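If your schedule permits, I should be very grateful for your opinion on a structural question. Thank you for your consideration; the sequence and its tokens are set out here:

===
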Amino acid sequence: MKNKKVYVVAFLFIAALFLFIWGFNFLKGKDIFNKETLFYVEYKSVNGLIKSNPVVLNGLRIGQVRDIYFHPDLSGRLIVQLSVTTDFPIPSNSIARIYSSDLMGSKAIELQLGDAKTNLKQNDTLSSSIEASLMDEVNAQVLPLKMKAEGLISSLDSLVVIVQTLLNENSQGNIIESLQNISKTIKNLERTSATVETIVMTEQSRLASILYNIELITRNLEQNNGQISKILANAATFSDTLVKTDIGGTVRSVNASLAELNFMLSTINNGQGSVGKIMSNDTLYYQLEKSAEELNKLLEDVRLNPKRYVKFSLF
């Protein structure tokens, strides 16, 4: 009987110790009845990630953060140990991304599956990624608005300066003068348009006649289109003929003839040659004049005394 009580006490002690160990690990998030696989991830910053934060895959919790510690090389980087309790294959190029699991800022790690043909094994290292914080998202959204607001404020400042410049006395006088000039210009344009309208109304018949004559000319050109084409063709033929003609040779011949003519005239002017001597020496002129006078006297004597020169004999 005593032995039975000892066995019961020993069994209860062992059961209580087992429950204590299981409860302690359960409270730590470790299930001693499930097989776990350990993976490692390296981060520059964990952004508030702590031990026992969940590890999820497609929204399902498959493990937890087992440990976080600094890299042994003292570079300041952090090593996160993940405990995964699922047998689901995880490709070797998968990414462990830290993200905010709720509005309170609690962190978790989401496994983003890759497409590699090989799967991760015990103690392998995953690639890391960190979701932008709420502050970063707000800054990313607000920064463009801030830049636009600064640009708008700068534009408003420039506008205020321009308005202040326009509102001084000199600028007001210039503006008033400009408006008066614009008013005068508009009045002149109105007068000009009225004058043009009057001219058009007055010369309406002449304008109609001019337009009619233009129409007639256009019709004549259309009717004589064939003849105009022939004229243009003849002109083209004539121009081709001129192109083929040795105009250069003709011009050279004319130049040579003119040179010879100039030489001959120069010779005559210089009194050279027979013609030159005749032109430059008046002796021949006087001799010819004297001979003509004597010839006249001879003809007059022949007329008055024909018998002296002509004898008639009948037998």
In short: The mean pLDDT is 77.
